[in-house]
Amino acid sequence: MTALFAKLAFYWSYPFVRCALAAGVLIALCSSLLGVTLVLRRLSFIGDGLSHVAFGSMSVAAVAGLADRMPLTLALTMVCAVLLLRSGHSARMRGDAAIAILSVGSLAAGYLLMNLFAASSNLSGDVCTALFGSTSILTLTPAEVWLCAGAAAVVVTLFLLFYNKLFAVTFDEDFSRAAGVGTKRLDLLLALLFAAVIVLSMRLVGSLLVSALVVFPAVSAMQVFGSFRAVTVGAAALSVTCAAVGILTAVLAGTPVGATVVAVELAAFSLFWAVGRMRGGAA
User: Fold this and answer.
1) Strand boundaries in 111-213, DSSP class E
2) Using an 8 Å Cβ cutoff, are 132 and 258 in contact?
3) Closest to 52 in 3D by CA, of 130, 126, 114
4) What is the C-alpha separation between 264 and 94, in angstroms, rounded?
5) Dist. CA 75–CA 283, nearest whole Å
6) Contact between 106 and 56 (Cβ < 8 Å)
7) 222-241: buried (b, 16+ CB within 10 Å) or exposed (e) per residue?
8) DSSP label at 89?
């Protein structure tokens, strides 16, 4: 145990480890707050679709030779988020069909672009990093960490400001609309915020595993807690804890960061599920 703490203290002396931990915790916090609302409204599959869109957008930015790929990736992902939102109200194309088209199309187009216009000789490594996160979280700069902090501040602030409306829309959208709540504007805000969180989360777990950050904490908290507020707080606390444990474990064990974080969240879900079943049996 002493050797483990000594090794952890050694790695903690490196700034890139502290940056990775700070960014990972902030991204996990944002994902969990938005994830509770999306899971309860049965919209969690949007995260998977937008994560593939973000991969395609990042490929376009890479082919364009942009030094900073985030602005273009973020803009294209936000545009697709709005399109997905509008398609959900279309009679000609259901929302799940639009998500399937954008998801698979963006993933295929992104991979095709990276093959045709490969900017580096290590194409497999670039694709693996984009899809699964790899160690890209360990290359964050202090400026990128501050960007994550700013995004987290915006998400938390807006979530608290619109908490009551989110609660109402989550459980009874028709009544909320009849009561004068601007449900379309609220959905648009959620879509834009979620697109931003998706792009940031790609650095932590990669585009294929982003939905785990959204779904696992919310579903885990629902196994134990019964109120919306308790689920929200529990999901946030669990997500932050799993991100910190996953990143530190990956650094110590030399495993891929994204996959390690998701494995920790899966273990936490299994624990919460078991506790929930035992409580149900006792009741």
Assistant:
1) none
2) yes
3) 130
4) 34
5) 49
6) yes
7) bbbbeebeebbbbbbebbbb
8) T
Tokens of 152: 């987290």
* Pairwise CA distance, residues 206 & 128, whole Å: 8
Extract the tokens encoding 175: 């009544």
**Residue from 111, 82, 109 nearest 98 by CA:** 82
Summarize pLDDT for 115-160 with one digit per residue, the tens.
777 655 555 555 555 655 555 566 677 777 888 888 888 888 988 8
Would you give the DSSP letter of residue 92? S
| Token pair for 247 | 């990143």
pTM as predicted: 0.81
* Three-state secondary-structure class, residue 180: coil
Distance CA 244, CA 105 (A): 33
**What phi, psi does 43 have (nearest 5°)?**
-120, 15
